[in-house]
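Input.
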Amino acid sequence: MKIRTRLSLQFILLTAGIFTAALFFIYNQFEQHVENEFFTLLESKARMTAQMILRHEEDLRPIAATESGSKLNLPTATNITIYNADTRPVFTLNTVSQQIPSNQLSMIWEKGSCRFFNDGLSAFGTVMQSESGRNYLVISEDKPDYSKLAKLQNILLISFFIAIAAIAAGGWFYAGQALNPVSRIVKEVESILPADLSRRLQSDEQHDELSHLIDTFNQLLDRIEHAFQMQRSFISNVSHELKNPLAAMDAQIQLATNKTRSNEEYMKVFGSLREDVQGMSETAGKLLQLASVYADTDNKIFTRVRLDELLYQTKQQLLKSQPNYVVRIEMNDLPSDEDLLCTDGNEPLLRIALLNLFDNGCKFSPDHSVYVNMVFLETGGTQIRIKNLSGIPESDQKRIFEPFFRSTIHARQKGSGIGLSLVTSILKLHRSKIKLDTDADQETCFVVTFPAFQQSSTLN
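Output.
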C-alpha cells in the first residue's frame, strides 16, 4: 500500500472516529434533553391535576376495582392517578391503565418524588399535600414522543456520510500535497548517476523534516562521492605501487639475462630483486590489514587491554625485526586503579596501529629513535604521545593520513604510504582520536587519545 493511500485511510479513520464520538455525544445530550423535558411535562400535569382535584377533597373516595371511575375514555397511554395515605387510588383518568406495583409506590412515599418506567410508559410520582394537611400520592404516566430523536438521528447519519466523503477527498488531496516534496526528492535521487556524483538535492530552506532529509541525503552523497574518489585513488595508487617494482624487477631480469655475468653480479641482482619482493610483500600485507579492519567489524571481539603492557609488547615486536631502532617509553604518575591503564579494544588491531606509528617514527628519524610518553587524563582516558626528531612540511601535514600519500622529504625512504591510513582506520574503529603535532623543521609528534575502559566485550 502506498504512503498516500495509507495516510489517507489513517486520516479518514481518525477523523471518522472523532466525528462519530461527537455525533454520539450530540445525540445522547439531545436524548437526555428530550427525556428531561418530557418528565418536566409529566410533573407539571401531575401537579396541576392534583391541585384541581384536591380542591374538592371531600368528594374523593377509594375507587373499587370494578368501578369505571372516570367517564373520560382516554387512551391507555396517558393516565394520572391519585392515591390516599392508605395507598388506595381515589382518582384516575383511565381505569384500564396498568396498575403501579406496590414497591414502586412505597419508594415514592419514601423519596417524595421519583421518575420511573411502568409497562413501557414513562412515569413521574410525587407526594402532595391538600389544604386539610393530608398527604396524597400523584402519579402521571404517558408514552414519550421520540419522533424528534428519530429526525435527529436521520440528520446525523446524513451529516456523517457527507462529512466522511468530504474528509476522504480532503485527506487524499492533502496527503498528495504533503508527499509532493518527497516525490520530488525521489526523482532527483533517481536522476543522480554514478558518473555524476557531484550533483546535490535542492533544499527549500524551510527548516522542517524534509529539509533535514535533504541535508541528510546530501551528506550521504558527499560520503559516497568521497568513497568513489578514494576508490579510484586507491586503485590508481595500488597499480602504481605494484607496477613500479614489477617493472624494475623485469628490467633487472632482462639485464641479467642479456649476457653471462659473474656470480657477484648475479648476487647483486638477486639482492635487488629480493628487496623489491620484500617491498611488494610489505605493501600487500598492509593492504590486507587495511581490508581486515573493515571486514566483518560486528564480529570483532573487544576486550580489556592494558595499554602499558601493549606499548612494551609492541616495542619488543618492532626490535625483533629492526634491532637498530630505539624506542624509549616513559610513564609518569601511574594510577593505583588498574582500570585506568586499560581501554576497550581488539588487541591485535591496536598492536598493528602502534607498531606502524613506532616503525614510521624510527624510520624517518635521523637517529632511528622514537620517544613514547603515556599520560592519564583527568577527564578519563589515556593519551599516548609518539615523537621523533623529523619534521613534516606544512604543505604535507593535511594529507599525511591519506592512503599512499608520502611526504616530499621522505620520498627516498622505502614505504607504501599505507601505514598512517591504516592507523587512522583502526583508531576510528576503537572510537579513539589521533592528531598531528609537528614542527616542520625539528620534530613530529602523533597524539593518540584512547577512551576510558567501559567493561564492554564486543564492538557495538
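Residues 66-72 have pLDDT under 50 and may be disordered.
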